[in-house]
């Protein structure tokens, strides 16, 4: 059932927190190289969906497949599967006690057992890719928010991931720093990396997304190409959300 | 902190001539208490140097410093390990481990330290020896004589009081330090563990490389203060007739009837050790904070 071009497959996913239903039967297929942008109001379950995909949250029901590996109920392979999924958080979550270079090399060394010199070469390559190689010896607190988020992206890229997950990567940034992070993400999208991005940056969605997914109340309400979604949204709730978000 | 900085800033702009207000401010902020403290030390040194009775007391009691320091150091080291693992246990997702850790901490917190020392020395250690004998018998039954013999031969009466004292102090302080470690670990944001796990690290790798290095840095001052407390509380082990400075001072006083000399010397010896250690802790604390600001 899993053809090779399917990178992520989410089947009938439900997630409850106590009595609160955060995800209510989500089905989603992401093909290799696709860029999916997820939007939706606060509390609609966007983060929870993303966090279920790499099992930071344990689904209550349903299945998640990464390539041909089932991740749900697969404790033994969990760390190995996770190491193939890069995640970028809203608040960066860099390791503050480590330098930028150490942030990017640590997981390579202890998860994938790559020797130090090689890990550093890989790290420098990705730091150059996000335009921040000159800060390799700095500590995260010495960098601006935009720079920190680019380091976080480099850290995820250094895992050589099959998939990159972004959870509102620019929401915690000052306006003047948003562009530098979005530019990096646009480059990644062009390079054909499979990406699932939760964001309110509609410009990014228009420019980079293959498909836009609109979520509300733990369900996927609408899935369409950006052209269709932004010009003629099919659902009333999508229209209401768009008018709200585009009006400011 | 803020006050100090503004004063330093003022000093940079101000001319060498200080105004009256500045002088008053300086006088107000000067740590006069240290003068009192140094006074105490100088006075005691004077007594010891000029009065033979104080000199005798000092020379006699001084011999216990080694035992006090050694007992404290060894017990502190064991308490650190015990505290770290208990602290980790208390935040474990395994409810058995978590509850065992909590039970240990609550038991220790609910009993006076002096009582704990008696209890561990005269109930805990004999029970522990009995348990080890049992384990020895069991090993012997399955044919592991090499491990069995030393365990079976262990006798309660052959455990020296110093060892009991060290066990008592470390078990007691292990519970205190467990709370310090637990608080330190919980002070690290959830995002750190999530980022590490999302990268494929195991729970223990994340603890070892991400959480603990940050947590331990945060609790260094608290751990340092505990060391000072433990040095003071080590005086309680004198009830086990361990020859630490308190015990030796007591012996000296009882024998020579020079109570004043004995206890003045004893108090000042503790004070000297704790003042030096507290200064060290403050220095470490400042270093940690400086690092944080630079980082
Ligand atoms: N760990 C948790 N414990 C309890 N409830 C949670 C937890 N995480 C999320 N929730 C709840 O689940 C629902 C979905 O949350 P989620 O974070 O996925 O929403 P979101 O779409 O990402 O919202 P936002 O745009 O505000 O980030 C919310 O009602 C939230 O309060
Ligand atoms: Mg969210």
From TrEMBL, chain A:
Q: Does the keyword Phosphoprotein apply?
A: no
Give the residues annotated as coiled coil. none
Identify the keywords attached in UniProt to this record, alphabetized. Answer: Amino-acid transport, ATP-binding, Cell membrane, Membrane, Nucleotide-binding, Transport
Give the molecular function GO annotations: ABC-type amino acid transporter activity; ATP binding; ATP hydrolysis activity
Q: Which SMART domains match?
A: AAA
Is Transmembrane helix given among the entry's keywords?
Answer: no
Q: How does it sit in the membrane?
A: Peripheral membrane protein
Pfam families per the record?
ABC_tran
GO cellular component assignments: plasma membrane
Outline the extent of the ABC transporter domain: 8-242
Q: Where in the cell is it found?
A: Cell membrane
Q: Which family does it belong to?
A: Belongs to the ABC transporter superfamily.
What protein name applies here? ABC transporter domain-containing protein
- Species this chain originates from: Bellilinea caldifistulae
């Amino acid at each position: 059932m899993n053809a090779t071009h399917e990178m992520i497959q989410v089947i009938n996913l439900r997630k409850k927190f106590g009595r609160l239903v955060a995800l209510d039967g989500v089905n989603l297929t992401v093909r290799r190289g696709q860029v999916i942008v997820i939007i939706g109001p606060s509390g609609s379950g966007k983060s929870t969906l993303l966090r279920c995909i790499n099992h930071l949250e344990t689904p209550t029901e349903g299945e998640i497949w990464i390539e041909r590996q089932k991740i749900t109920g697969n404790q033994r392979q969990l760390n190995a599967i996770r190491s193939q999924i890069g995640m970028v958080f809203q608040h960066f979550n860099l390791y503050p006690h480590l330098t930028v270079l150490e942030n990017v090399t640590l997981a390579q060394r202890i998860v994938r057992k790559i020797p130090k010199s090689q890990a550093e070469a890989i790290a420098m390559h990705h730091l150059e890719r996000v335009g921040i190689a000159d800060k390799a010896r700095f500590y995260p607190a010495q960098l601006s928010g935009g720079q920190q988020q680019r380091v976080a992206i480099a850290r995820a890229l250094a895992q050589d991931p099959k998939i990159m997950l972004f959870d509102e990567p620019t929401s915690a940034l000052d306006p003047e720093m948003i562009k530098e992070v979005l530019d990096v993400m646009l480059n990644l999208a062009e390079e054909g990396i499979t990406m699932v991005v939760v964001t309110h940056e509609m410009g990014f969605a228009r420019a980079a997304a293959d498909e836009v997914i609109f979520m509300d109340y733990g369900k996927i309400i609408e899935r369409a190409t950006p052209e269709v979604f932004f010009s003629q949204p099919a659902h009333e709730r999508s229209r209401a959300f768009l008018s709200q978000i585009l009006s400011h | 902190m803020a006050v100090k900085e503004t004063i330093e800033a003022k000093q940079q702009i101000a001319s060498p001539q200080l105004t009256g207000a500045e002088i008053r401010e300086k006088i107000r902020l000067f740590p006069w208490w240290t003068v009192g403290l140094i006074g105490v030390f100088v006075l005691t040194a004077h007594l010891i140097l000029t009065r033979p009775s104080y000199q005798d007391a000092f020379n006699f009691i001084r011999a216990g410093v080694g035992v006090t320091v050694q007992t404290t150091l060894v017990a502190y080291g064991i308490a650190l390990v015990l505290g770290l693992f208990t602290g980790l246990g208390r935040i474990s997702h395994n409810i058995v481990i978590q509850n065992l850790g909590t039970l240990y901490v609550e038991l220790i917190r609910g009993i006076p330290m002096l009582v704990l020392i008696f209890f561990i020395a005269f109930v805990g250690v004999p029970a522990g020896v009995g348990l080890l004998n049992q384990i020895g018998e069991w090993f012997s039954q399955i044919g592991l004589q090499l491990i069995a013999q030393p365990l079976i031969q262990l006798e309660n009466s052959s455990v020296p009081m110093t060892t009991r004292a060290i066990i008592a102090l470390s078990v007691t302080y292990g519970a205190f330090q467990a709370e310090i470690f637990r608080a330190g670990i919980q002070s690290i944001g959830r995002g750190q563990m999530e980022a590490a796990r999302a990268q494929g690290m195991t729970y223990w790798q994340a603890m070892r490389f991400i959480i603990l290095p940050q947590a331990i840095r945060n609790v260094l001052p608290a751990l340092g203060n505990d060391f000072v407390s433990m040095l003071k509380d080590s005086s309680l082990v004198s009830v086990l007739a361990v020859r630490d400075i308190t015990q030796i001072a007591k012996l000296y006083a009882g024998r020579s009837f020079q109570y004043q000399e004995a206890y003045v010397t004893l108090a000042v010896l503790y004070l000297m050790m704790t003042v030096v250690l507290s200064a060290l802790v403050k220095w470490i604390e400042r270093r940690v904070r400086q690092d944080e600001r630079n980082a």
